[in-house]
Amino acid sequence: MGFSPLEGLMMGQRCGDVDPSIILYMAHKLGRDCKDVLGMMNSQSGFLGIAGTPDSRDLEERLLSGDETAALAIEMFCYRVAKYVAAYTVPLGRIDAIVFTGGIGEKSCIKRKKILDYLAPLGITYDDDTNNENGKKTSGLISTPSSKAEVFVVAT
Fold first, then answer.
1. Nearest to 97 by CA among 147, 63, 33
2. How many helices (H) and strands (E) does the chain have?
3. Is 24 helix (H, G, I), strand (E, B) or coil?
4. What's the pLDDT tens digit per position in 54-108?
5. How far apart are CA 5 and CA 52, in angstroms?
6. How far apart are CA 115 and CA 31, in angstroms?
């Protein structure tokens, strides 16, 4: 988190990283003041603003039934996670391991798959079956032996 909770990944109700100029643009377009727009960015954006629900589990159910707004919200989230991982690779020089944990990381094989597919150009590979099992039968390891970094799912 940066100066405020808005910095970083998109969340259930928060927008995550955006171009700062969007605040003035939205205020003008919506006929609202900047304080109102910041309120919207903190509590009416993210998954909720894109797909109408802040709940990641609901989004996945809707994705599986073909809901395009749920698909968009999930795609945006996964792309941004992968973008952050890739960005941290520059100062670190390499990735030793990726650990998925918490509600989304631990419980969503769909989101892990999408994130890891985005990271394939970095040599990150995983096994679909162990990903789908949340790594339970492999002590949490879901990466393949040829992966450039180990990938784990850790229950919390």
1. 147
2. 8, 2
3. helix
4. 999 999 999 999 999 999 999 999 999 999 999 999 999 999 999 999 888 988 9
5. 20
6. 37
